[in-house]
Design brief:
494 residues; mainly alpha
């Protein structure tokens, strides 16, 4: 929301671009964010070309990435950036002093606890109208990285290889990082402002120049038609993502402001609009709310790619892929035919973090605990909890429908098409219904919204869970990598 004319630039960040903010009618914090990301994009190209692994040592690359990241944080958030540095240094102390069996627990409690306290303080600051700078985004990313590294360090030093899954074994960290490596991983300029979270081993491999070769070896590049080890360039991927960023920005400036979410609970709108029309408008305003996320996450992905980070291998057509750090797949989101498919393609790196630190490690109720952690990580606005608790209910009911009904529609192409069309419509409307409180934030508008929708998704989900049998999930029978292999060998010997 733009500041009214003449309003003071209430920010703790730099005021250098305040004239531009006034000219465009866009809050100064958003101007600073975009300016830092565009400057980071240019710095990333320079970093790859002039400070590449063949031109500079790992220590120089770590130092450059860290110093620029610290500068961006101070430019955007001013003294609020102290929160980032305090959390980073507290957890560095934990990483070096805590026992390995407990390092992931202590790191998780401290990082999530500090983040939650900052969420609480920001709400009170907003309430009393002192400052409007939102520093929670970088703090949330750093929390993800701290807990990711702690869990992977615990896996690498505190657990036996046969206790780990294949992914945990691949990402396990065998030695504690140095201070420079630690600061670089958490505060580098490519991800300090908008992320995304990445795995520590991937980041260190990137800094040391092993990142691309490591991914090529994983996919066996010789079988992809190359007679020598290729040297893929990220330029094409960066240009493509910048085009998506530009389109998203245009949609944000045109659609988002013209279709506010608040209108769906306007009294006049509710009185004059029939239920089906309200559902249709709910879909429209939800679509209009997406471009800002598409813009921020795609630009952040482009920044990392421009630095040479984010290569994920070669696809079946022999095309180089730069989606290791991608946070969304727009096509899969807009064409999702299941709640699960939608979630898996939205905020991908956060979903991966939740899976690695919570879902894969939870001894019971992994789905519920994962949704609760996601809500706590996002903040303490009541709307977040309405969204994620509703998400639990809809996820379980969607899973029950798919497991019990989908196979009946696979016998012919027309049936499959009909099934896909119906599930697409239901999925998109279910997502809209679920995320509306996330945007509204407060209790009163959320309850008003649910009443206007007659709580239909809640009621239908409960009925589905009461009627359809729930099959056990793979989580309850998940086995470590080596145990699964041993069991397979034993079965063959019988």
């Amino acid at each position: 929301m733009a500041e009214p004319p003449g309003a003071p630039h209430r920010t703790t960040g730099s005021t250098l671009l305040h004239p531009l903010s006034g000219l465009l009618g866009i809050p100064l914090d958003q101007i600073n964010f975009v300016a830092c990301q565009l400057f980071a994009l240019l710095a990333a190209f320079w970093f790859r070309i002039y400070l590449g692994p063949s031109h500079a040592s790992s220590a120089v690359r770590h130092a450059f990435a860290t110093l620029f990241g610290i500068y961006f944080a101070v430019f955007c958030f001013g003294w609020y950036s102290i929160h980032l540095f305090v959390l980073v240094m507290m957890n560095y102390g934990i990483m070096n002093m805590a026992s390995i069996p407990n390092i992931h627990r202590y790191s998780f409690v401290v990082a999530m606890g500090y983040l939650t306290l900052c969420h609480i303080s920001r709400i009170y600051i907003f309430h009393y109208g002192i400052l409007t700078t939102d520093f929670s985004g970088p703090l949330m990313i750093i929390t993800q990285k701290i807990t990711t590294l702690a869990c992977q360090l615990h896996d690498g030093i505190g657990r036996q290889a046969e206790e780990l899954t294949a992914e945990q074994n691949r990402l396990a960290v065998k030695t504690r990082p140095s201070l420079l490596e630690y600061l670089s991983y958490l505060l580098n300029f490519m991800s300090i402002i908008a992320g995304p979270c990445s795995n520590y081993k991937d980041y260190i491999a990137f800094i040391e120049g092993r990142h691309v070769h490591m991914k090529l070896l994983e996919v066996n590049w010789k079988q992809k038609g190359y007679d020598r080890l290729p040297d893929p360039s990220p330029t094409g991927a960066v240009m493509y993502k910048l085009c998506i960023t530009l389109v998203s920005l245009i949609l944000f400036l045109t659609l988002t402001k013209n279709f506010p979410m608040a209108y769906i609970i306007d009294n006049e709108f509710l009185d004059k609009t029939p239920f089906l029309s309200r559902l249709g408008y709910l879909y429209v305003v939800t679509q209009a709310a997406k471009p800002k996320y598409y813009f921020a996450w795609t630009l952040a992905d482009a920044v990392n790619n421009a630095a040479g980070y984010g290569f994920s291998g070669v696809d079946e057509r022999g095309t180089f892929r730069w989606d290791l750090l991608s946070n969304l797949n727009i096509w899969n989101i807009e064409t999702a035919t299941s709640f699960k498919m939608y979630i898996e393609n939205w905020n991908i790196q956060t979903a991966a973090w939740l899976k690695r630190v919570c879902y894969d490690r939870a001894p019971w109720y992994p789905t519920a605990l994962t949704f609760i952690l996601s809500a706590l990580w996002h903040g303490i606005y009541p709307g977040y909890y309405f969204t994620f608790l509703t998400g639990i209910l809809i996820t379980l009911s969607a899973r029950a429908i798919r497991n019990n009904c989908r196979h009946y529609f696979l016998s012919s192409v027309p049936l499959k098409i009909a099934y896909d069309v119906v599930t697409w419509v239901v999925t998109q409307l279910a997502v809209c219904y679920t995320v509306a409180p996330f945007v509204m934030l407060a209790v009163e508008p959320t309850i008003k919204f649910y009443k206007s929708m007659y709580f239909h998704m809640h009621i239908l989900s409960i009925l589905v869970l009461l009627v359809l049998p729930i099959r056990p999930q793979a989580h309850s029978i998940r086995k470590p990598q080596n145990q699964a292999v041993q069991n397979s060998v034993k079965s063959k010997d019988k």
